[in-house]
Amino acid sequence: MGYIEELREVVGSRPLNLAGVAVAVFNEQGQILLQQRQNGIWGVPGGFVELGESTEEAGRREVLEETGIEIGTLQLISVFSGKEFFVKLPNGDEFYPITIAYLCKNITGGTLKADGIESLHVQFFDINALPEKISPFIKKLIEQNVVSI
Questions:
Q1: What is the mean pLDDT for each group of 10 consecutive residues in the chain (149 residues)?
Q2: CB–CB of 101/142 below 8 Å?
Q3: What is the rounded CA–CA span in Å between residue 34 and residue 141?
Q4: Would 138 be classed as within a structural domain?
Q5: How many Å apart are CA 37 and CA 145, to the nearest integer?
Q6: Is residue 149 domain-resident?
Q7: Alpha-helix residue ranges (DSSP H) falling in 38-122
Q8: What is the pLDDT of residue 149?
Q9: How far apart are CA 43 and CA 61, in angstroms?
Q10: Cα separation of 60 and 104, whole Å?
Q11: Number of H helices, E strands in the chain
């Protein structure tokens, strides 16, 4: 059982603040790596930070688990939090993510492949040709000119 599952046993579905990471990975052609999740929305790899794990470790782990890609140096972009990011899951669990966002421009290994669980598809996209259904995080990156179209 993971950390969040253990927390849920204690607090039920009440709202929580949960630390997470999101990693905008770019290839040598300047394309961004996106994954399509079960809900059909495209976004960058990421997930929750495990107990005792650094955010950088979490970022590398999530990218590898979800896309098969190994990455190098992470550059802090921003921290996203607040009411606009509130999530209510179908099972009733509620949380406010505190997402530490990173940029990575060096892929060090691995083979691009969706894990079939969290990622249905993984693909590099030109910034000016993003899929229609993109996550709020990608929209925020564009608004803040971290990535430009």
A1: 85 93 94 93 94 97 97 94 91 94 95 91 92 83 61
A2: no
A3: 13
A4: yes
A5: 24
A6: no
A7: 55-67
A8: 42
A9: 16
A10: 10
A11: 3, 10
User: Does 148 fall in a domain?
Assistant: no
For residue 114, give every residue at least 6 positions away whose Cβ sits within 8 Å of its Cβ, in sequence order, or none.
35, 36, 66, 67, 68, 120, 121, 122
What is the Cα–Cα distance from 3 to 142, expressed in whole angstroms?
Answer: 32
CB 42 within 8 A of CB 134: yes
- CA 103 – CA 74 distance, rounded (Å): 6
Record the tokens describing residue 28, joined without a space: 């040598």
Tell me the residue range of the domain where 121 lies.
Answer: 3-143
Domain count, the chain: 1
Task: Give the domain CATH number at 21.
Answer: 3.90.79.10
Q: How big is the chain by its Cα radius of gyration, in Å?
A: 15
Most distant CA atoms of the chain, gap in Å: 47
> Which residue matches tokens 């009733």?
92
Q: Would residue 83 count as lying in a domain?
A: yes
Cβ-Cβ contacts under 8 Å for 19 (sequence gap 6 or more): 48, 49, 55, 97, 98, 100
